[in-house]
Amino acid sequence: MFVIAASVVSSALAGGKGYFLNQAKTLDDVELDMTCSPPTRLGGTGYCGPEYCELAEKWSCTGSDKCAVCNYDVGINQQGHYFNTAKPMNYQQKLNVITSYDCKQSTLDICTRESLSKVIKANGIKAAYCNDQFLVIHTDMSAGYPMWLEDIPSPPGGGEDHDRTDQTIEGIFCQTGYESIYDEYGVYKIPLYPTPLATSDATNNLNTRSFPSGATRNAVGGHFSVAEGAGGDYGLPTRGPIGLTVTGQEIFPIYNNVGYYTPQKCEVDSCNQHIGAGGGQTHLHGDPFGAWCMYDLKNYTNADRHPPQIGWIFDGYKTYGRHIDTKNLGYDVPLDACGGHEHDDYGYHYHAQIIGSQTDGGVYNPPTPTYDDVNPQGIPYVLTTPGPWVCMKGDISLVPNYWSNWKQFEEVTSWISLKPDTTNSLCYDTTEYYVAPGLTLPIVKSFQLDGKKTEVMKSSGKPEEEVEEEVVVEESSEKESKKSSKKSESKESEEEEEEKSSSKSSKKSSKKSSKKTLRA
Known about the structure:
Structural class: alpha+beta
Radius of gyration: 29 Å
Strand content: 15-25%
Number of helices: 6
Helix content: 10-25%
Largest sheet: 8 strands, mixed
Shape: globular
Number of strands: 29
């Protein structure tokens, strides 16, 4: 159970005007440990975004007779996804289908049982292991901390894109909310040996090798186009995640699917999360910092220590929490435009951070007041990133089968899916891994027999447990068969019926001996 200390929230609320990021206009108004306003259930205004988002509550049609919450049930939703909200996900069944192949598991520190157990939080991540190329993570994609969806002023709608005239269910306009949640299952891979690009700007990965769909709006394998949004071209996906949190929740770019900063459009709660137009689990568009979110001040043990890891990005680099103190390790090393830096023994990595921006003006046409009435162009405000900002540092065109991350709603894979291959398989004899309580991994072990490597057993995924498997020894069977044959030959004087009886006895003896076994 997630418990929030009342003293923490009351202390935050006591800060008054200017204490929360919602109320800050520029970076000069910001303190490093500022949070978005607490949820309304805890006494705040409950959203991340400019202060004018409070007026946007008038746009939210949740509960009115003109619109409804997108309530997905068994069937096909508007993005063509099959799902079954009535049938609970069988996570062990999902793990049981993991394939194995002949490879040597990586010995990097990121792959050790100790390291994975320290980093992974909550039970959203069902399993994590390394093969020779990737850290593979199986997750139910849940947040692992509370959702505050009722506080989102203007939730995403239930259509294919953000054309709000098209977001309807049975002719009624809908917005996502708690009723839009259903079980999901994702398998994602993090490259163990990323290749950094020479540049750190929006042109990173801005090519069809990295994004085969090219510049496009809201399409798998596509990147942001200058014709959409207000920020120009970015080598970031217009649809789909760029990483995972340590709780197993998907991390999306700070931009929404048409290239605008998501908080500016008042689409996220006080933890920077929402449910997308297709329903399912929540995902992040910013920093989940706060006592009511994924991490906060209690996760910083000492002022001079490095901020905690909050996730992995799919280009192969980790993402860490924001610097909340000038004494934090690495604070004095500036972040590049991608949102990362390199210092000490950390190698390249990203950080969540607070950035300043100005509103771009309205693009939606919701119920009155119109968007432009409350969101005129040029209003300064601040927001946060989840790590990567305008780019990813790693060259994703060099990642084998980058777009073969996959996720499932029930038994059918979704739009980001390709069939699993060896990039997300287990190595034979895997010993280092993480698995959630009550679940096991189908680890295939091997041994040498007559100089030939043979698969002999599937363990429970617990290396300390000796799993015995019977292996038929053909050599023993051969010897017994020869013995019976000799006995049969010694009875040449017997009649034909007796010879047949002897032959039957020989076969029976051979069959019996073939069942003799050795313990592997």
